[in-house]
Design goal:
8 helices; alpha/beta; 9 strands
């Protein structure tokens, strides 16, 4: 069964607790937290304090995606706050294996994220150090974008390589395109507006779980 991870980027910022509780009651599997530094991507969002607050109201896994040039400064604060998984980007100029090992030493899931145009070959040598591969289906930074269908082939490529971790995608995922993603190997779907703006979130998640 595919895991559904609502992205709080699409939640009501003035009613975040209410929306997260509603998502949990609707049957979601994880909560996805996008962290943006206004440098790696042209937007700014969420701190370790947000994750700390979320951890107080839910026991669901908190899936933290660091869209940052310098994630090494924030890995420990997010882990201390209660992150279950921390994902860093393949495109940054950092010692990525050291970052992944740092996360795993804390007993949490370590993820690697790739933008739509970044080839899998860039991370082939470090996939064994990861528990999750996040293949972005839009350019990261803003919600509400249309899914880049070219990434479906990359999902299939990763599955065919025998990758043992979770295969996650984020961006433009809807009920009408998730089935194709799941059929090609996706195991975790990050969804924002398709869930938080759905008047029947529980019904939607139930249908997605059957794909």
């Amino acid at each position: 069964m595919i895991k559904i991870a609502p992205s709080i980027l699409a939640a009501d910022p003035l009613n975040l607790e209410k929306d997260v509780r509603a998502a949990e009651q609707a049957g979601c599997d994880w909560i996805h937290v996008d962290v943006m530094d206004a440098h790696f991507v042209p937007n700014l969002a969420y701190s370790a304090d947000t994750v700390r607050g979320l951890r107080r109201i839910t026991e669901l896994p908190l899936d933290v995606h660091l869209m940052m040039d310098n994630p090494e400064t924030m890995i420990d604060p997010f882990l201390d706050a209660g992150a279950s998984c921390v994902t860093v980007h393949a495109e940054i100029d950092r010692d990525i294996p050291a970052l992944l090992e740092r996360i795993r030493r804390r007993g949490r899931m370590a993820g690697i994220a790739l933008k739509p145009n970044t080839p899998l070959e860039k991370v082939t040598d470090i996939l064994g150090m990861t528990d999750l591969a996040l293949l972005m289906t839009v350019e990261p930074g803003f919600g509400g974008q249309k899914l880049d269908a070219r990434v479906i082939a990359k999902i299939r490529q990763l599955k065919d390589m025998g990758y043992q971790g979770e295969i996650e995608s984020d961006g433009g995922i809807q009920e009408d395109n998730l089935e194709s993603l799941a059929a090609n190997g996706l195991t975790v779907a990050v969804m924002g507006t398709a869930l938080f703006r759905n008047p029947d979130m529980a019904g939607c998640i139930a249908r997605l779980h059957r794909m």
